[in-house]
């Protein structure tokens, strides 16, 4: 039964390709640094050795990688010099994501990322780089069966002729376009560009460039330079838009029994399945641009690593959704969460603190500006009322809501975040107060759930309310 | 909110913290001394020298004299059947509640300094973070460790 199997050879290509992609910039730098004056064949020895090594290791690790499974467990052996055998009980598999990358598609296979318990130890993730789609489906079925057996629940035998349930949520092409236009991804591209340029520092003569820029600036072509910067930013924005469109094309959410299945992607098709029991919380983001049009996005905090390729424990459920549809989606996908709770505002006496807080870091630059640019810099003080106004808006948006089984916290303005957490998923609850806060009987509360570092926080809640919330967590836990 | 429930940690924590503070300031003293020597070599203005020395003295006073007793005074812990309740902080008072059912495992830790004063600290791990209660009497730490392990097991089997 347990015959060892090997991945499709395209796994070598995708693995080596990924390694090479990471190596290319350092290698270019080495070549450029080594050949200050003129190129000679010596400059290529190190990079060539690195490339050959990578390719050989890629092939070897493919040869040494075998996998197999039966009804109970998945067995993976790997390692070129040090042999590693791992056996994972199938019922312990918590999440699976199936990706069809460009490489995999050429060979008609899929890449399976498996997430099991104990991810903190870093050993519980298995990546099957290239297995046939049929095998992936079989594995998924085995996992489901193993889980059902573990729970000893008799399901009616209706699973035999199962067709995928209808999608609960899809994105139209227009919506994909809006997501891409309004996402904060542009900044990410600019940062990546900056990082890339700083890696090339060895063979771009920055000093000369700066001198050139200065003379250009002093000359008549500052408009030209401004235009250039504008074009670069615009191009970065374009790249971000295309990236997002590729990522979110044909987005669909389905619910198969107790598992939420999210499929998406255009060049790289991906399907992420998360058991509802593993969901630790729901986060609704509303960035200011999207809020203008009444849209929000919903993501799940799930116990485990980055199944979605993003941050650990963060999976996007709906990239863009009309606010009034959020409740119905949440009720069908995650019936235990109640998004319709009414939020309590913060006490009035917290308002001044909220208004002062942005001023703390605005005052010094404003004073500096007023001092340096004597006559007109005084205009900088106009920023202060604006800052106070922003603080006031923040104050009005922040809030909390408590129901017997659930705690919800909301904060933020430009990126307003609402987090819903069930009582039995709370890992710890913290209330803290500085001396200033104590004088006004206010506290900052924060709650943490499973993946490391994920927590929601609201500043300046009434002390009495914080006590209510800690009481809620204390005492006999009954559902 | 009440900020005075629970038990205090060992009074000897003050001594331990004073010692670690002193060691820390000694280490930074070496760095500061090195910088001063360099300044002397390059004929820096004497007021810079004074500022550096002043900063170092303030640091020493804060870490050795002022902070340890305050920290010890503010530390409180309470371990109940259903949750662990920790409170700490000098400037900002933080109170953390950890449901017993969320506790994964407990460590008793003891460095050379703690050992010398017959103290130990316990660290409570949840799936999200570690929470430490520093400087308990050694037998108390052992007892709490066993107690938490016991209660965590019970709470877990009750939990769905």
Automatic annotation (TrEMBL), chain A:
It holds the Pfam family bPH_2. Keywords: Membrane, Transmembrane, Transmembrane helix. It comes from the Bacteria. The chain crosses the membrane at residues 20-38, 44-63, 176-197, 223-246, 354-372, 378-402. InterPro entries: UCP026631 (IPR014529), YdbS-like_PH (IPR005182). Signal peptide: none annotated. Residues 62-141, 250-330, 399-467 form the YdbS-like PH domain. PANTHER family: UPF0699 TRANSMEMBRANE PROTEIN YDBS (PTHR34473), UPF0699 TRANSMEMBRANE PROTEIN YDBT (PTHR34473:SF2). This is Membrane protein. It comes from Geobacillus genomosp. 3.
From TrEMBL, chain B:
InterPro entries: YdbS-like_PH. It comes from Geobacillus genomosp. 3. This is Membrane protein. It holds the Pfam family bPH_2. Keywords: Membrane, Transmembrane, Transmembrane helix. The chain crosses the membrane at residues 21-40, 46-67. Residues 73-147 form the YdbS-like PH domain.
């Amino acid at each position: 039964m347990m015959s060892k199997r090997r991945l499709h050879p395209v796994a070598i290509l995708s693995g080596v390709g990924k390694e090479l992609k990471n190596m290319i910039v350092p290698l270019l730098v080495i070549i450029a640094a080594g050949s200050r004056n003129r190129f000679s064949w010596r400059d290529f020895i190190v990079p060539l050795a690195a490339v050959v090594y990578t390719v050989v290791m890629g092939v070897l690790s493919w040869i040494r990688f075998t996998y197999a499974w039966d009804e109970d467990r998945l067995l993976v052996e790997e390692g070129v010099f040090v042999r590693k055998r791992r056996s994972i009980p199938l019922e312990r598999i918590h999440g699976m994501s199936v990706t069809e990358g460009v490489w995999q598609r050429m060979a008609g296979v899929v890449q399976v990322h498996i997430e099991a318990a104990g991810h903190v130890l870093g050993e519980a993730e298995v990546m099957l780089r290239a297995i046939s789609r049929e095998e992936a489906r079989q594995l998924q079925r085995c996992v489901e069966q193993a889980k059902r057996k573990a729970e000893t629940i008799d399901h009616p035998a209706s699973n035999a002729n199962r067709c995928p349930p209808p999608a609960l949520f899809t994105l139209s092409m227009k919506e994909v376009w809006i997501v891409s236009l309004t996402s904060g991804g542009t900044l990410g591209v600019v940062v990546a560009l900056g990082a890339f340029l700083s890696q090339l520092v060895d063979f771009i003569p920055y000093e000369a460039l700066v001198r050139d820029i200065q003379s250009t600036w002093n000359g008549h072509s500052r408009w030209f330079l401004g235009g250039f910067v504008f074009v670069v930013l615009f191009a970065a924005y374009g790249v971000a838009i295309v990236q997002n469109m590729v990522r979110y094309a044909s987005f669909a959410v389905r619910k198969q029994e107790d598992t939420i299945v999210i499929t998406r992607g255009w060049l790289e098709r991906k399907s992420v399945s998360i058991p509802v029991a593993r969901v630790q919380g729901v986060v609704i983001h509303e960035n200011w641009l999207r809020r203008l049009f009444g849209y929000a996005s919903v993501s799940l905090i799930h116990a485990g690593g980055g199944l979605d390729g993003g941050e650990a424990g963060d999976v996007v459920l709906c990239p863009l959704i009309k606010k009034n549809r959020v409740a119905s989606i949440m009720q069908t996908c995650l019936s235990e969460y109640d998004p319709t709770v009414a939020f309590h505002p913060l006490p009035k006496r917290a308002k001044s603190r909220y208004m002062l807080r942005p001023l703390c870091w605005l005052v010094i630059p404003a004073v500096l500006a007023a001092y340096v640019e004597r006559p007109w810099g005084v205009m900088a003080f106009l920023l202060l009322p604006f800052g106070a106004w922003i603080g006031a808006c923040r104050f009005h948006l922040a809030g909390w809501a408590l129901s017997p089984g659930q705690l919800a916290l909301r904060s933020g303005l430009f990126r307003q975040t609402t987090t819903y957490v069930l009582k039995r998923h709370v890992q710890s609850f913290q209330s803290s107060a500085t001396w200033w806060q104590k004088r006004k009987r206010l506290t900052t509360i924060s709650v943490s759930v499973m993946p490391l570092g994920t927590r929601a926080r609201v500043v300046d809640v009434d002390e009495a309310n914080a006590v209510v919330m800690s009481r809620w967590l204390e005492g006999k836990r009954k559902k | 909110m009440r900020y005075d429930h629970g038990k205090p940690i060992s009074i000897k924590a003050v001594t331990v913290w004073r010692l670690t503070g002193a060691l820390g300031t000694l280490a930074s003293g070496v760095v500061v001394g090195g910088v001063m020597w360099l300044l002397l070599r390059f004929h820096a203005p004497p007021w810079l020298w004074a500022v550096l020395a002043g900063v170092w003295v303030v640091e020493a006073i804060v870490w050795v004299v002022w902070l340890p007793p305050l920290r010890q005074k503010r530390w409180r812990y309470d371990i109940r059947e259903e949750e662990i309740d920790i409170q700490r902080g000098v400037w900002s008072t933080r109170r953390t509640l950890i449901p017993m059912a969320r506790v994964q495992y407990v460590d008793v830790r003891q460095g050379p300094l703690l050992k010398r004063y017959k103290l130990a600290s316990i660290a409570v791990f949840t799936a999200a973070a570690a929470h430490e209660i520093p400087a308990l009497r050694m037998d108390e730490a052992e007892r709490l460790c066993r107690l938490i392990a016991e209660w965590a097991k019970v709470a877990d089997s009750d939990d769905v």
